[in-house]
Design a protein that fits this description.
The complex is a heterodimer of chains A (157) and B (103). Chain A is α+β, with helices and mostly antiparallel strands and 157 residues long. Chain A is built from three helices and nine strands; from the N terminus they run αααβββββββββ. Chain A has two domains: 33 residues; 115 residues, Sandwich (Immunoglobulin-like). In chain A, strands 1, 3, 5, 6, 8 and 9 form a six-stranded mixed beta sheet that branches. Chain A has a three-stranded antiparallel beta sheet with strand order 2-4-7, with no helix packed on it. In chain A, strand 5 and strand 6 form a beta hairpin. The longest helix of chain A is centred in the N-terminal third of the chain and has 26 residues. Chain B is elongated and about 55 Å long. Chain B is mostly beta strands and 103 residues long. The chains are: A alpha+beta (157), B mainly beta (103). At the A-B interface, helix 1, strand 6 and strand 7 of A face strand 5, strand 6 and strand 7 of B.
Chain lengths: 157, 103
């Protein structure tokens, strides 16, 4: 019994020893791999989202950020969006749909090993501005926006 | 949710790898049925890409990402034949991952 318990303990210690460095290695490059920010994703206004994600920071409109989206989306449930930027040291790319019931659509974290353009498809409930915010390593927030007219809403309405 | 991920990774002459992903997922919005009961949302919260055991890209998604999500971005410092691991996790705790070989 004694030996059995020890071997179990040793096995557990072994697991810890093996697992710890691996998980650290995974975490290292994207310094703090963000957890899913529930409060930000539940927020119903841009101000609330910005407060949750970038408290106290100001957002500047910037020509160095380009947001590509269609002028008119026939189907609001599939709107292709591309965020491109000439800025260096991009930390995060955040996309908001200002008139959706939940404003925050997506936040992407980049490392030194990844880069824009970032493209994906989103739902728009109605005609509205889509906003892209690029956060750089110096802590500054750079914004671009684009109005998208929606013929048929993407949120069941 | 096996094989929910279809991906392509192509490296260009400048050494930049263009990664394109298509994920099979309902990305269901929270809604109410005819009786007014809330039907819970079902959507991917997080998607990650790793190269050489290094997380190089992370996406956090809300319900407004379209059904069967498409995602593309650029990977730097990789080479032809390298493998990129893609993994996602949704709000019900389901997950999947797949490897994409750079061509």
């Amino acid at each position: 019994m004694q030996t059995h318990r020890r071997s179990v303990l040793r096995a557990l210690a072994g697991l810890l020893f093996v697992r710890l460095p691996a998980s650290l290695a995974l975490l290292a490059p994207l310094r703090a791999l963000a957890a899913w920010p529930k409060a930000a994703f539940d927020a119903s206004s841009s101000a609330d989202v910005l407060d949750q994600l970038f408290k106290g920071k100001t957002v500047q409109s910037s020509d160095a950020v380009q947001l590509e989206a269609p002028d008119i989306a026939e189907n609001g449930s599939v709107v292709p969006v591309t965020v491109q930027t000439s800025l260096k040291g991009v930390k995060t790319v955040t996309v908001l749909a200002e008139q959706n019931p939940r404003v925050l659509v997506a936040q992407y974290s980049l490392s030194a090993r990844s880069a824009a353009p970032v493209s994906f498809r989103l739902r728009l409930g109605k005609t509205q501005d889509v906003v892209a915010i690029v956060e750089t390593e110096d802590g500054k927030l750079h914004k671009a926006s684009k109005n998208v007219k929606v013929s048929l809403g993407g949120c069941g309405g | 949710m096996a094989n929910s991920i279809r991906g392509r990774a192509e490296i260009n002459a400048d050494g930049v790898t263009h990664i394109r992903l298509l994920i099979n997922h309902p990305m269901a919005l929270e809604r109410r049925d005819a009786g007014g009961q809330v039907i819970a949302a079902h959507f991917i919260e997080e998607i990650k890409a790793s190269h050489n055991n290094e997380v190089v890209f992370q996406g956090l998604w809300g319900q407004a990402v379209s059904q069967n999500p498409y995602l593309s971005f650029q990977l730097l410092g990789a080479k032809k034949g390298d493998r990129v691991t893609i993994g996602w996790r949704d709000n019900k705790g389901e997950s999947d991952n797949a490897e994409v070989t750079i061509s």
